[in-house]
Amino acid sequence: MGIVVFNGISSKDVGVEVETFPSYAIPEKEYDVVHVPGRNGDLIIDSGTYKNVKRSYAVSVATHDKFTYSQVMNKVAEWLHSASGYARLEDSYDRDYYRMAYYNTAVSFENIFNQAGRGTIEFICKPQRFLKDGEIPVTFTSNGSIQNRTINPASPIIKVIKTQADSTGTLVIGDIAISIAEGSGSPIIIDCELQDAYSGDVNKNSVITLTSGVFPKLYPGSNAIQINSAISSIEITPRWWTI
């Protein structure tokens, strides 16, 4: 029997057990296909993105001394609809990874003598399988590098500790430079996936300048990290992923 954790709530806590290994869905890559008259074959334009996938679990539920079958099913429904939008999805079959998923489908459970039930729950997942070790921040107090061992560019979260209020902070990741204005405060969080900068609940987009106009990514292989003297340290949470 397996376990699913969705939105921080374990299936075990709501009386659900996974009966079989889930199927593995490889996401569909998005291409633009253009036919050019007079040319053999189609022109393929790779967008570099993938479509969502489905993650299905064959599950069973059973009543307990304290709960009727109806009460157990209410708990299951509340669990499945506990998140608005994407939430973290983990299971005991793929322990080193997590997904971002949402639940929006209907499910009908076979009622077995009003004591147990069986059915299939299905989550809609972003195509990425995020590595849990990609959630570990890497700290830099001077120039260095960070290694991406996957084949996919990662969009990190960067926490910048700026000590010199009267100087412009500059950090470079690969060939992408970010300048942080004087008097901007500290720390500043730069989320390269959301393309947003903030400190607590205060928006900080106005104090950062992307010299190339794009947020940095961590590309496969070694990525050089540079910081100037106005910055005390940075923490990079890489968010490695695969499919």
Description:
β15 and β16 form a beta hairpin. Helix content is 5%, strand content 47%. Strands 1, 2, 3, 6, 7, 8, 9, 10, 11 and 23 form a 10-stranded antiparallel beta sheet that branches. The chain has 2 domains: 4-127, Elongation Factor Tu (Ef-tu), domain 3 (Beta Barrel), CATH 2.40.30.200; 132-242, Jelly Rolls (Sandwich), CATH 2.60.120. The chain starts with a strand and ends with a strand. The model has no long low-confidence stretch (mean pLDDT 92). It has 243 residues and is mostly beta strands. It has one helix at 69-80, and strands at 4-6, 9-10, 16-18, 29-35, 42-50, 53-62, 87-91, 97-102, 110-112, 116-125, 129-131, 138-140, 144-148, 157-162, 169-173, 176-180, 188-191, 196-199, 202-203, 208-210, 221-227, 231-237, 241-242.
Strand proportion, as a percent range, falls in over 45%
Look at the structure and give the mean pLDDT.
92
User: Using DSSP, what is the number of strands?
Assistant: 23
> What is the CATH third-level topology name of the largest domain?
Elongation Factor Tu (Ef-tu), domain 3
Provide the fold topology:
Elements: E1 4-6, E2 9-10, E3 16-18, E4 29-35, E5 42-50, E6 53-62, H1 69-80, E7 87-91, E8 97-102, E9 110-112, E10 116-125, E11 129-131, E12 138-140, E13 144-148, E14 157-162, E15 169-173, E16 176-180, E17 188-191, E18 196-199, E19 202-203, E20 208-210, E21 221-227, E22 231-237, E23 241-242
Antiparallel strand pairs: 1-2, 1-7, 3-6, 4-5, 6-10, 7-8, 8-10, 8-11, 9-10, 11-23, 12-22, 13-21, 14-17, 14-22, 15-16, 15-21, 16-20, 17-18, 18-19
